[in-house]
Amino acid sequence: MYEMSPRERVIATLEFRKPDRIPKNAGFTPHVMEQFKLHTGADDPADYYGYEERYVGLQPTKVEYDFSRYLPEGLPSDTQVSEWGEANVPGDFYHFTTYLAPLASVNTVEELKAFPWPDVKADYRYEGIEDKVKSLREAGYFVIGHVGHSGWEKACYMRGIDNISCDLMNNQEFAEYLLDLFCDAHCFIARRYAEAGVDMVMLSEDMGMQDRLFMSPEMYRRWVKPRTKRVIDAARKVDPDVFIGQHHCGKVDALIPDFIEIGTNALNPIQPECMDVLDIKRRFGDALTMWGTVGAQSVIPFGTPDDVRRTVRDNIRNLGYNGGLWIAPSQIVPPETPWENIEAFFDAVEEFGGYSG
Question: What CATH number does the domain located at 6-66+104-352 have?
């Protein structure tokens, strides 16, 4: 088998054709990134390890937003506030922060209308994106446009998960307006990514907890699924062939048929601590690419290098036999991970990740 370009490799995987090699990647927490730079002398894991994908996104906003009425006074000077008003107050344990939701005390549609929403539809936010996509594709990469935290997850961050959960039951006009507002913004972003020529539009909803869904399947189908479909349809109206990826942490196997129904091609991160990866492959392995599957709560931080190698080998054999596997740690690599385990992951992908034909 000839050597594919990175882009060809991912497309073959998503189309359930055997690529020349299993595509791979891994996200690093800040402490792990420091270890990466210390041990390798490199600055970019994607270049160093040869990730097949590259990302494009919006240009930074030029607007200075005032969220003072929505956030507590006297926040530490190193608090980071996003253009949506979400505040992250640094903690004392690695990269973890205290999260403050700017809409926690907002309860009416009129108050939502008065909120300083970001200018994600401004033309300058997409300046140069077509050229960047073209350049990356010419270099052989698979290009992803990440919409960001989509409707439900965005509402959890901005409203607070307890508040938005209650809104779905007791303040439905408010919930409808808020979720539709996010959906409208994300439809616009997804459409612009498709117009720019990305290979995949990536969404993030996080419908799962460790051992259950955040809401019943019926609630998901009432509140979340139709809006996610609208975002997917917005991209596919521009490019019917654009791939769709969804990120859902936790136990979401009950919703996989819904994800497939609305047009999802790949599901990330497939946490083996939460779901039976072999069962997912058996049930959905000809319709959904599994992206992840190597436990970031278990074998990556707490196994031995041999454990990591064995898991990578077994997952490639058992989950990637017909394509359909994009292997990665099933979340961003946590700071307690020994460097030897990170080396073992990439070494094992190199050793076991080739297809003979």
Answer: 3.20.20.210
